[in-house]
Amino acid sequence: MPARPLAVHVLSIALLGAGLVACTSTQSTGERSGAPAPAVTRDSADPAAVQERRTTQSGGVTIVHDDWRQIGYRWDWTGYPNLAGRERIKFIEPYDDLLVVQGNGNSLTVIDAKTGRNRWSDRPANPLANFVGVARDGNTLFVCSQSEVFVIDAATGNWTARQPMSEVVNTPPLRFGQTLIFGTPTGELFSHRTDFGVTAWRYDVGGSIEASPLWVQGTVGAVTQDGCVAFLTPDSAVAVATARVGGPLRTNPVTDGEMMFVACMDQSVYAFSPDRNRHVWRYRTNEELAVQPTYDDGVVYVTVPRTGLVALDAMRGTENWIGPDAGGVVVGRRAGSLIVWDGEQVKAVEPSNGDVLASFPVRGVAAVETDAFENGHLYLVTRQNAVIRFAPR
């Protein structure tokens, strides 16, 4: 599954779905005011009447059921995480059984993925704390701010530990057993042990690390904002390989497990491998690359401004095709079509040639995520702080 966009964790990212059979209804924003865990109930209206209703207003979004049906999705539920005051949803982390929602203050809500109801909510730190991401190990959640790790029981919301970190971190955590690995503003890869609450290791890579580290052939791959590329062993922080790119990043690298693919502001897409100290290939463009790329099934998808969506052969870096009208973030695949979100429209794109098979506007959406790239559920984060789930139909 593709890595999350830099400024797209809720930030650049994602998508949608819907049909109408067995849709859900939920409270209005006025009804949810002051309600700690709003109920989401199935629509019990007469089936014939339901078929007649073509649109639903939910969470600040107009759901046109025929639009979602044509790309293979139906509206499942709309949920409202508990947020404080003017707080906004910062990011969501979807799993098959639950959804973790983090506000841009200190609000944390876990939503049941099946029903859309809030399981529990908490405010683990002060409102000025900056949370960077979540990792999970079974029933344990590691909720991470820039300076602390909160170890929380996913079922109950009870804390089992609160651990300060010896470094300020910048990125979501990358879990390695009982350790969490982060990038830092000072240019270090930093590993924190959650079993003892102490630092495991730190390694100075170079400039600030803002893009999420990821796993590549069992090593930790990372790219700094001053162009350093490094692959480290996760247990002992030994540098396996180093290389360079020609500029900073506005997106996160992605991987097929064997290579790391980097879309860079130096107008290039690179492929790197832990077994060599230079790029495997480089694809040059005429524009800075600030839209999150995606890897799927041997292809790297990257949107080039004023060009469109470009499909690159992951082994060679050559063009498979260019879709002039297909630009955006490839957030998933449904019934053989690529699902693309460009910030305004949802598109179903033919993966063999980039043709747009269907498209429709979706207004009022800040981000889109999926719990599985292939035929997964789609989660829309709305500008009215609702989360809307669409299920494959």
Percent helix: under 10%
Calculate the mean pLDDT score and round it.
90
Distance between the termini: 21 Å
- Give the number of helices: 3
CATH-assigned homologous superfamily:
YVTN repeat-like/Quinoprotein amine dehydrogenase
Provide the structure class. Answer: mainly beta
Q: Do you know the CATH topology?
A: Methylamine Dehydrogenase, Chain H
Q: What percent strand?
A: over 45%
- Count of the domains: 1
Let me know the largest β-sheet. Answer: 4 strands, antiparallel
Number of strands: 36
CA radius of gyration is: 21 Å
CATH class descriptor name: Mainly Beta
- The CATH architecture term is 7 Propeller
Order of the strands making up the biggest sheet: 5-36-35-34
- What overall geometry do the principal axes of the alpha carbons give? globular
Low-confidence parts: 1-45
Which SSEs are present, and which pair or pack?
Elements: E1 24-26, H1 29-32, E2 40-42, H2 47-52, E3 55-58, E4 61-64, H3 65-70, E5 73-79, E6 89-94, E7 98-103, E8 108-112, E9 118-122, E10 131-137, E11 140-145, E12 148-153, E13 159-164, E14 174-176, E15 179-183, E16 188-193, E17 198-204, E18 214-216, E19 219-223, E20 228-232, E21 239-244, E22 254-255, E23 260-264, E24 268-272, E25 281-284, E26 294-296, E27 299-304, E28 308-313, E29 319-323, E30 329-334, E31 337-341, E32 345-349, E33 356-361, E34 365-370, E35 378-382, E36 387-392
Antiparallel strand pairs: 1-2, 3-4, 5-36, 6-7, 7-8, 8-9, 10-11, 11-12, 12-13, 14-15, 15-16, 16-17, 18-19, 19-20, 20-21, 22-23, 23-24, 24-25, 26-27, 27-28, 28-29, 30-31, 31-32, 32-33, 34-35, 35-36
